[in-house]
Amino acid sequence: MSTTSDSPSSPLGKVSSHASETSGFETAQESDQSSEHTVTTPLQPVATIKDDEEDLVGAATGMAPLNIERTTSSSREKYDSFPSDLMRRPTLRPTRSNYDPNDPINLERVQTARSIQEEVFGAKRRREKPRSDLPAFGGGKDYPPDALDQEIYLVDFDGADDPLHPQNWSLKRKLKIMAILGFATFVVAWGSSSFAPSTVFIREVFHVGSVVSYLSISLYVFGFASGPLLWAPLSELYGRRLVILVSIFICAIFHMGVATSRDIQTVMLCRFFAGFFGASLLAVVPAAFADVFGNKSRGVAIALFSAAVFTGPIIAPPVNGFIVESYLGWRWTAYLTSIMGFASVVPVVFYMEETYAPSVLVAKAQYLRQETGNWCIRARQEESDFNFKELVEHNLSRPLRMLFQEPILFLITVYIAFIYGILYLLLEAYPIIFYEGYHMPFAVAQLPYLSVVVGQLFGGVIVLSFEPMTYRRTMANGGRPIPEVRLLPTMIGAVLFTIGLFWLTWTGAYPQNVHWLAPTFAGLFIGAGLITIFLSAINYIVESYLMFAASALAANTFLRSAFGGSFPLFASIMFHNLGTQWAGTLLGCIAFILIPVPVLFYVFGKRLRKASKYAPT
Length: 617
Prior knowledge:
Layout: E1 36-39, E2 47-50, H1 73-80, H2 104-121, E3 124-125, H3 171-193, H4 199-206, H5 210-226, H6 228-238, H7 240-259, H8 264-292, H9 298-324, H10 331-351, H11 357-372, E4 384-385, H12 388-396, H13 398-405, H14 407-437, H15 449-465, H16 467-476, H17 488-508, H18 517-545, H19 549-578, H20 580-593, H21 596-610
Antiparallel strand pairs: 1-2, 3-4
Helix pairs in contact: 3-8, 3-9, 3-10, 4-5, 5-8, 5-19, 6-7, 6-8, 6-19, 7-8, 7-10, 8-9, 8-19, 9-15, 9-18, 13-14, 13-19, 14-18, 14-19, 14-21, 15-18, 17-18, 17-20, 18-19, 19-20
């Protein structure tokens, strides 16, 4: 359900209010007709706001906006300089509110917000108990009368351009959030493959077989599979910042446990729980980017996230390959990852702000209660009751329900899971080709991985080249995203990825006759295919499910991590028994069969989204 408003008090006219009433994922229609807007304020006759100062505008939510003094560039910078995004807003002085509790549009918005609240948070509005069931009020006083209209005490954003809304933050603040979360995600992804060069050495140290040593990789990725089922719903209940801070800190502690372990059991358990806690970044960070970035820049933000997810596992083996062969030894691969993890905690503690719109409103309500002494003021999220049963049924189980009930999410996730499994299968395939086949030194044999990173850079350029067209089509659609447009780069990546698999395995199978550069260059096609498929598919999921993006990405992370953890376990056996060329042919044929998947969703995706109860667009 969506509503529009043409009230003069609305700075942007018609806006969509369906998803934005709780999470602010949608953005209002952005004007492209002029470079400046002129507004009249109570204290100064004219103030000018330039479009290029803000490339994004947040969605209007809930209550009708107040008439306020608009901020110029200098006042916005003053607001940005505050250490917290709480209600320190000296440049915004509200005047009389235009909110009418009996207005049909406002009533509809309130009802919509409540229904979404129940779905997203698994919570219902508090039910008042009869006075006979309550204890005496005390002090010889009767209970005070109920407020006539509870809605007037619910805080909200001051219209579509409220600087408090994360999507209306300055570009500098957004880039700060992007850098902090991008580095934290890179560290977690790095940890997934950083231990791969150590598997050869722990076989000798702990006297285990090759499959058991590969479990140290698989268990970390299996932690990726199970973690998001908890972290994603918790981020929708308690905000992004707290979940990210706690999980990345504990993840770093478990990496330290791997480095100091004295038996193989400790290695395996610590690797699993490091992945379990680190998994929050894989599910929550894309949702945090969607909180902050609108339709115009969301693709670029998700590109950074995808780059961190895919470059981390590729760069780690070459670096750690040289570490394990040095005097430092295999334990320092875990020490280094732990140090990087603790380093990523510092900017989260001191510089990251909460990005989840409902949590921002909770902080706003808390501030206003303290400053005004009016304890009736509250946020919509605070008026809901949570219990464990509802938490499990509506939140922890929602990612799995969405995965198997939503055809869009299931099939796209299967496709992503396959290429993600290939990413970790390459951790075993490359040493077989270059270490065993071409007889390169162990550390040097890890370097061909870097060709995959270069390919990812080319793939990223391909995806970003589609962003202007995507934005134009979004604006032509009234500012509402068209998820299927995101799938165009996926079609290109599907072909490149398939070519790369055949190229790598058929040239790498004959080291006596084929120069080592031939299979190395195949990594360019594999890397370009990996990143274009993943980037476009993640954007497609985010724009299809919007306020349920965290849960949809949790479902995606669950299945793709299950594939990523399983593939290394059979990779060595498959390549040795079938031969490099025929193992690659099997994988290449599967990739070829999956090429039509993005085409089918491009054609039929809109029809499927209309039948979905989770997709609002």
